[in-house]
């Protein structure tokens, strides 16, 4: 029996969180970990109390907008945004934490991650727009890719 590393363990949990996503186009999950404890989770979907894309459809899909472009036309909040909001609304500091996310952040999420004080990112895959990754690199946030078999 092989025991998973902490990074493998937490990225697998982020993949499980992604299964709650209500986005038609991309299922993303994020968790924020501090001292090997999960302090917050998030997945991409419509804001609290609003209908989900699964119910009303996807405007970006209807307009044939490529992934990674024109995020302002999406009714959903990203997984990273929801994880940060959940921690903040609970009064939990993210300073010095690690975020595990199934996809690299967009530019907007990268700015939030930087300002939240996340010091390390473990990511499952790249995002179509590389600006977010450039901002993360410029901010000096340690980044690793933990590519897993999608079946795991």
Molecular structure report:
Strand 1 and strand 2 form a beta hairpin. This protein is 33% helix and 16% strand. It is α/β, with parallel strands linked by helices. It has six helices and five strands; from the N terminus they run H-E-E-H-H-H-E-H-E-H-E. A five-stranded mixed β-sheet has the order 2-1-3-4-5. The longest helix has 13 residues, at 6-18.
Summarize the topology.
Blueprint (H helix, E strand, L loop, with lengths): L5 H13 L10 E6 L2 E7 L9 H4 L2 H4 L16 H11 L8 E4 L5 H10 L3 E4 L7 H8 L3 E4 L7
Parallel strand pairs: 3-4, 4-5
Antiparallel strand pairs: 1-2, 1-3
Q: Tell me the radius of gyration.
A: 15 Å
Beta-strand share of residues: 15-25%
Uncertain stretches of 5 or more adjacent residues: none
Helix content: 25-40%
Please, what is the average pLDDT? 91
Query: Strand tally, please?
Result: 5
What can be said about the biggest beta sheet?
5 strands, mixed
By DSSP (H or I, 4+ residues per run), the number of helices equals 6
Shape: globular
Give the topology string: H per helix, E per strand. Answer: HEEHHHEHEHE
Strand order of the largest sheet: 2-1-3-4-5
